[in-house]
Structure formats: C-alpha cells, structure tokens
Amino acid sequence: MKKWVIVLILCALGSWVSISAQEKVDTLSAAIVQTNKEKLAARTQTSMQKLDTVKIKRGFAVLGSPDLIKTLQMFPGVASGTELSSGLYVRGGDGSDNLFLLDGVPLYQVSHVIGLFSSFNTDVTENVDFYKGGFPARYGGRLSSVVDVGVKTGNFTKWKGSASLGLIDGRIQLEGPIIKDKTSINVGIRRTWLDIIKSLAMGVVRMRSNSENMEDIMNYTHYDFGDVNLKLTHLLGETGKLSFSAYYGHDVLSAKGYMSSETDSDSESRLQARLKWGNILSSFRYEKFWPQNGWSTDTKLYYTNYTSDITMDTYVKEISTSEDEPAQKTEISLNECDLSRIHDIGVSSDWLFDGLDGHHIRTGINAVGHIYDPYRKLDMELKMNTIKYDELHNANSIEYLGAEVGLYIEDEISLMDRLVANFGLRESAYFVRERFYNSLEPRLALKYDVNDKFTLKTSYARMSQFSHLVSACYMDLPSNLWMPSTSKVKPMSSGQFVLGATFRPSSELMVDVEAFYKKMNHLYEYNGTNTLLPSMERWEMDYLEGRGRSYGAELSIEYFAQKFSGALYYTLSRSERYFPSYYYTWFPDRNDNRHKLTLSANYRFSRNFEVYACWTYHTGNRFTAPSSVVWSTAEEDVSNESPTYIYSMPNNYLLPDYHRLDVGLNWHKRLADGKSRTLNVSVYNAYNRLNAFFGTVDVANDKIVGSAYGIVPIIPSISYMWRF
Cα separation of 129 and 433, whole Å? Predict the structure, then answer.
C-alpha cells in the first residue's frame, strides 16, 4: 500500500509542477515550436525511421487498406514472423519487446484479425517515429523498438474528411472546428463487414436450400472487428494547448456447432465458443511554451485497458440402451472462461529547455500503476438419468499490483562545428508484491559530419522490460497473458551498440549503412508442448531463463524524385538464444532470417495515376523437429514397436525461403476545393507463391521427412476513397 501511495504522490507532483508553471506570453504556437524541437532532437539518432501519412498511404494496401505495421516490416532489421501477421521482430527481439505509443500512451496488443491489420488507423495518423536502436532516454519499458504514433490535430478553420470502402472493411474520418480557431475535433472509425456479408449469404443459402438441417450445418460462425479514434484539441492562447485522446478497438470471433446422432434423435452435442479482445485508451494532455526562456512542457494523464476473453460452452447428451437394462441418459455440461486483463493508470511530465547556446535539454518523469488480472473459471456438471452424479466448480484469479517509475534526462549538445552528441540517462524502478527492481540505463549517440554529403553515427543504449508476455506456443495470440516481473521472474534487459554511416550524393538519393550488436538477458521460454492457453497458476515454474544475442549489418538505399521513387533494403543478421537448462550452447532463434531483401518502386505517370510494386525475400523461419528416429520394442509385446525421436538442437530446421511480389495502382480524380476520389487496385502475392506457414515431420522408411504448408494464395483487392 505504501508503494501505491508513493506512486500517486509522484503522479500528482509531476502534474502540479507542469501546470503550475503557466505564464502568459504572446508568440508562436506551441504546436509549431514542438515540431521544430522534435526535428532538432532527431539529428543524432541512429536506426530511426520517420514516416508521415503520405509515405504510409503510398505503400501496399492489405485487402484495400494501408497498414502501418506492414510498412514497418519492409525496413531492414525487422522480421515479420508468420505470413500476414502484424508482428515486429526487431534485431532479434520478440514480438512483445516493442513499445507501441498512440499519442504518447502505451498499448499492448495492436492487431486486428489475429494479425492481418494493426490497430493504427492511417486516416488519423499524422506521423510515426520508429526506433530500432539508439533510443532516446525518454523511452523505456521495452527491449527492441519504439513505434511512436502521433494522431493529427483536427482542422481549426474548416470541416473536411474522407470515406473509404475496401474489400473487407470501411473507414470514415472527419475533422473540423467546434469553435473556429479555438477548438477542433478529429475522429476516425473503421469496421469490417465480414459479418454482414456472411449473414446475407447465409440468408440466401437458406432460402434456396431444401435441407431442414441447413441452419444447423452452417450454424454458425461470426467475426467482426472495429475501432474508433477521437482527438479533441483546445488552444489556450498562442502558447498553450489542451487535448483529449481516446481509442476503442475490439475483435470478436465466435462459433457454434451442433451434431445429432443418425441412429438416436435424442443424442446430441453442442459447442459454443467466443474469443474477444481489444483495447480502451483515454488521455488528457497539456502542452505549454515559454519563449522568453526557451522552456516548454508536455504533461499527460492516461488510462488504458487491454482485455482478452475466451469462453467455451459444451453440452453432450447420450442415450445408451441394451436388451437387459433400461435406457440410460448421460448429460455433460461444461463451461470454461479464460480472461486476461491489464489496466494501466499513468502520468508523465516532460520538460524541454532550449535556452542555452548549443544545448537541447529534455528531462521528465513518468509513473504507471499496473493491474495484472488474469481469471479462469471451470464449471462441470454430470447427470445420469435425472440424478446429478458429479459436479465441479473451480475459479482462479491471480492479481498483481505493479508500479513503474521512470526518471530521465538527455542533452543534445554541439561539441564542435561538425560533432553533435546526445547524452542521456534513465532510471527505471519497479515495485510488485514486496519486490523492488531498479535499472540504470545510459544512452549515448554521436554524429559527425565529415562533409556536407557524408555522416558517421554511433550509439549505445541499455533498455529494460518489466512486463512479460506469457505464451505457450510460437505465435503471438490474443490468448497469451501479460504478467509482471516477480521474485522468480526477473526483468528482461538489453544493451545495443550501433555504428553507421550515411551518404547523400544528391537531394534525391540517400545510402545508409549500419552494423549492430545486441545482447539480451533474462529471456524466458516456455518449457512444454504447444497449447492455446498458458498456465496461469504455474507460469513462473513453466518458463526457463536464458540469454539472447543478435548482430548484423543493414543497407538502405532510397531514391525520391518527382515521378519515380524506390528503395532497396537488405539485412544480413544472426539471432541466437542460450538456455542452458535444455541445450548446452547457443542455438538459432525461430525468427533468425539470415538474409532479408526488400525492393520497392513507385512511378507516378501523372498527377492522377501511379503504380507501385514491392518484392520481399527472406530466408525461412525456423522450427524444432527430430533429426533422427530409433525404433524400440516393448518387452511385453514384441509386435508393438514405437518410435523414439532424437533432437539435435532447438530450431534446427529451416522452412523454405520466403518471397512475394505485391503490385498495385492508384487512380486519383482531383476536384475543386481540395476534394478528390482515389481508386486503389492491388494484388497481394501476385505470382501466387504458397509460402510456408508451418512445417511438419513424418517418419517414412525409417527416415525423417519434412513438409511445409502454405495457406495464403494470391489476394486481389480493390478500394475506393472519397476525400471531401
């Protein structure tokens, strides 16, 4: 309780300091100043990509909809995991090692359709900062990357928006002034119509079918997803700004099954299952600028809630008869509920000072209270005839209260005419169940301009992560549990060193080369067979501790001209793990893609017509399979032989190499007053290669035979967007 009091005091203090320092001035708006300062702070960064909404929307549209995560997967050093997933595996890290921020607020599960789309609506996105290394001291809590997504402020002078119809979803975005030149709103809504199309199709089938059981045969599957983004902004004079941001996203997948006996109409079985997950976010943000002394502040108060809910109802009724005994009816009812929740209440206050010549100083504090709240319930009832024979009622809940506090300071300083450095230091502390952890995280970045065209950069950053994604399978599923560091499960940590060079021979061409080395400590792997639901009660004991390392080199060549733009991204890397509890030396990580190559091109024939293409290649993902088999015979039954599988090492087999071509075109019709229409036609996997989604092994002639299976064929799509 004392720890929670300390956290609340820190939260209140950070908010009071920021708000109480208000001062009346009349100069440039805070929004403009903030933009300029962010550009200054980015001068020394290594391993960073800045994206705006134009770049994102000119990329490939998945089923007619542009997607931020799919765009980030193109860059060097980023593995995508399985086909069509929204996973980011950055420089050897796991999918849970990425910090996703929406207007400065962390989100946990950022996928729709189990990874087909991300939670970020590009219609309301203004800019994205993507860090793979050289992390500024203001970021903390994750090991591998930072994806900082900014939501654009609504227009203060006029109403405008857009509406889009895609293959499986529709989007609408609207922005404009509530009070002209004072208060604005920006709202974006997305929703699938897979459920609507399915309902209409089933209705037609039922009308045309003569089968009385058609409703039972097709009964029933349902899926829908959607999200809403909202941002309200109020200007406080020329130097202050108050905003409110909200996000709600959900996915629902449900199914019903029914089966009756052909010989006994009174025997039946029914199954009803539902998987639901989503995020809720709300935040208040206050920004203020004092031009006389170069101070500015940015304070946020926020709440988030991530929930994953799996329910399953099973009913079985059987009638058994015999000539000597009367008929006996057996009924089994089973209800299962698995709920994973994490609530965050946080506050952050950032201070920027630009009043000293040659210095750009930033400092701040953030405090977050975490509530990890997994819950599982099992109800079972067994009846024979009309007598209740057995019943079971079991409910388990494990609540963890965690508090995370971070303090940081960073200074971007010009040491010489051509040398700029960013010195940063972050102190992170974590409290959970009478356990205290702290982590001192130094950050350093240097940039030296050899001349106007050639630049050298280097950086070192240490990161720590106190939350763990507990998974019992190789995929990042919504059913996985978020759990805190405890006395048995230590916080993860990483240290990354980057050395790079940038060459700009002209304003259109940029060549960037980086080499990196990253070490990761206190990693955890599930010690058991794959299953959908990880153990809630035994999760601390079911996971083994180990280490990780990754190293490699990345090449980026980008060309941007008026009509043609293109890029080449290449990665040569190695990612390894060391878990001494089950293997004696280092072994490859499952997402160890040794080579990765991306080629993209966009050609604008005119103001109204453009085509684009993107080809992606990487070596196959890895999986664990037996390397040989030995047949053994039981002494009591010489006729019964059973195979014994021998494993050489984890992740010892490679799936086939992955490659895919995506093509598309945009046709724009421009109207008066900035209005336009855009038709997008695209093809995912244009030459219809069935890339391996998973692999299996079988025994044939005393040999191990492996097989790979692909599930995603060529996918054409079309969408139409109105901008008004």
Answer: 35
| Total number of residues shown for the chain | 724
Q: What is the pLDDT of residues 201-218, one digit of tens each?
A: 555 545 554 544 444 444
Q: Which domain holds residue 455?
A: 2-723
Dump pLDDT digits (tens) for 140-181. Answer: 999 999 999 999 999 999 999 999 988 778 899 999 999 999
Decide: 284 and 244 in contact? Cβ < 8 Å. Answer: yes
- Each residue of 48-59: pLDDT tens digit? 988 877 777 665
How many domains is the chain built from? 1
Q: Measure Cα distances from 531 to 113, 256, 369, 471, 524 in Å.
A: 20, 22, 31, 9, 17
Q: Which of 195-199, 431-435, 474-478, 572-576 has the highest mean pLDDT?
A: 572-576
Please name the residue ranges forming H helices in 96-188.
none
C-alpha–C-alpha distance, residues 664 and 57, integer Å: 12
pLDDT at 113 over 90: no
Residue 411 contacts residue 423 (beta carbons within 8 Å):
yes
- The CATH number of the domain holding residue 350 is 2.40.170.20
Write the burial class of residue 143 (CB in 10 Å: 0-12 exposed, 13-18 middle, 19+ buried). buried
Residue 242 and residue 31: Cα distance in Å, rounded?
11
For residue 646, give every residue at least 6 positions away whose Cβ sits within 8 Å of its Cβ, in sequence order, or none. 626, 627, 628, 629, 630
Residues 6+ apart with CB under 8 A from 387: none
What are the tokens at 394? 């079991």
Strand 387-397 versus strand 375-384 pairing type: antiparallel
Give the N- to C-terminal CA distance of the chain in Å, as an integer: 53
Q: Is 250 within 8 Å of 189 (Cβ atoms)?
A: no
- How far is the C-alpha of 292 from the C-alpha of 239, rounded, in Å? 12
Q: What is the pLDDT of residues 501-548, one digit of tens each?
A: 999 999 999 999 999 999 999 998 887 666 667 777 778 888 889 999
Phi first, then psi: give them for residue 50, nearest 5 degrees: -105, 125
Burial per residue of 492-524, b for 16 or more beta-carbon CB atoms within 10 angstroms, e otherwise: bbbbbbbbbbbeeeeeeebbbbbbbebbbbbbb
Mean of all residue pLDDT scores within the chain: 83
Look at the block and give the residue holding tokens 């993902």: 621
This prediction has a pTM of 0.87
User: What radius of gyration, in Å, describes the C-alpha atoms of the chain?
Assistant: 28
Q: What DSSP assignment string belongs to 174-226? A: EEEEEETTTEEEEEEEEEE-HHHHHHHHHHHHHHH---TTHHHHS--EEEEEE
Q: Which residue has the tokens 């999760």?
A: 539
- The Cα 509–Cα 568 span in angstroms is 12
Place of tokens 């599957």: 221
Beta bridge partners of 156: none
